[in-house]
Amino acid sequence: MSNRRPEEPTERRQVTSTPRSPAEALEPSRGPTRRPGVKRYREARKMSPALRFINAALTLTAVVLAMVGTVSYWITNEISKDGPLKETKSVVVPKGEGAHEIAKRLETDGVIGSQQMFVAHYIGRYLTSLVGGRSLQLKAGEYEIPGGASLRLVSEILGEGKSTLYRVVVPEGLTSTQIVARLKNDPNLTGDIIAIPAEGSLLPDTYKYAKGMTRQQMIELMQGEHKKLIERLWAARQPTVPLKTPEEAIILASIIEKETGRNDERERVASVFVNRLRQNMRLQSDPTILYGLFLGEVAWGRPIYKSEIQQKTAHNTYQIDGLPPTPICNPGKSAIEATLNPAKTNDLYFVANGQGGHVFTQNLKDHNAAVANWRKTEQEIRARQAATAAAKTAKGLAEKTAAPEAAVAVPAQPLVTAPTPDEPTAATAPTMVEAPLPPVRPTATPPASATVKTINASSAPGDLVNVPLPIRKPKRP
To answer: Which of 112, 234, 258, 267 could bridge to 338 as Cys pair (CB 3.0-4.6 Å)?
Structure first.
C-alpha cells in the first residue's frame, strides 16, 4: 500500500490573497465549500405538513383577530357617540317587529343615524351571548328617548323594557259594564273586549301598562289580581263568618262597598249585615234595589221610590232572604277584608249622622231616635241649600240687568225636587238605611264611588243629599 497522502480536492485548496500566475488571476473564484453535515442539518429543519397547517392556522387567526379588533374598536366608537336626536322623543315599538324593522323605524324617526350599525350591534350582542355574555332582547312598548342618546343607550333602553307606562284608574264600586266602558274610552289601550266579565270578578285598582296593551289583556290582568286577592283573604278570614264560599264573600262585600265609602266604617257596616245573616233577617240594602232594577247599567245614587222598594227582583234584599244571587258591583280590597273580618258588635241598624258617617244602633228604639236626629240635620241642610240657590238666582238676575246684551241665562234648577206621589212616605217604607233625595242636578255619569252617602254642614251646594226613611222592625222570614 502506498503511503502517499491523497491529494486534497481542489475545492478545499487554500485561496491565497494574490494569484500565483496570470492564468490563476483570470480564473473565476469559487465560493466556500459546504461543511460536512450542513445538508443534513438543513433537511432536518423542514416542517411537516401538520406543522405547516398549524402555522398557517395561527397566522390566519392572528390576522382575523386583528381585523375583528379593528372593526370592533370602530363599531364601539360608532355606537357610543352621540346620536342625531336633538331633544327627548317618544318612540313606539309595536309588538312582533324584529331587529331590522325596529332599526328602520328608529332611523326614520331620527333616533339613530344608521340602521345597519344598530343591526350590527344587535348581532354582536347575540354572538357574545353565546359565550356567556348578556344578550339583547328588544321589547315592544313606548319609550322616552333622551336627546343625543347614543345607539348603545337606545338599544339598552329598548332591551330593558322600561317603557313609558300609562295608568288606568278603576274605582271601587263600579259594575263590570261600567268598567268595560271606562276601558273602551282609554285611547292608549287597543283592541276590543270579548265579553262583559262576570259581576264582581274584577279587582278595582290603579293599573300601569305600556302603550299597545289590549283591553282584553287588561281585563284578564284585573281578573287575575282579583283571584289572587280573594284566595289570600279567604284563607285569613274569621272562622265564624256565616259565608260558605269566596263567591258569597264577594257578594256581601259588593253590598258593603256601596253602603259606605269610608274605610273606617266598613268593618262595622259589615258587622251589621253579618249579624242580620246570623239572625235570618233580611239585609234591606238600598243599593240592591237599584241593581235589581238596572243591573250593570245602574246609576248609583239615584232616588229610590216606594214602588221600587216593593218590586221583587232577584237582587232586592227587601224582598228576598239572604244574599243576592250575584254581586252588585266590583268591590275593592278594603271592602273584601271588612267582609271576611267584620267588627264584633251587636249592631243591626245604621243611619246617616249628617257628618259623612253613620250612627250604629242595636235596637229599633235607638235607631228611630238616630233617624229623628238625622231628619233635623237634613232640614237644616235643605234650608242652607235653598238660601244658596236664592242667592245665586239673585246674582244671576243682577248680572242680566247689568248686561242686557249678554246671552239670556238659563233659569236655575231647584235644589230639591218636589216629592212625587210615588216617593217613599213616612207611613210606608220599611228599610234599614237611608234612601237619597233626587240629585240637585242630573249627571250624565255618576261618580265612580257613588254610594248611599250623606253630606255635612260644610258641604257645597249641589251635593247629593240622602234622606233616611222611617224605619220599622224588619220582619223575620
So the answer is: 267
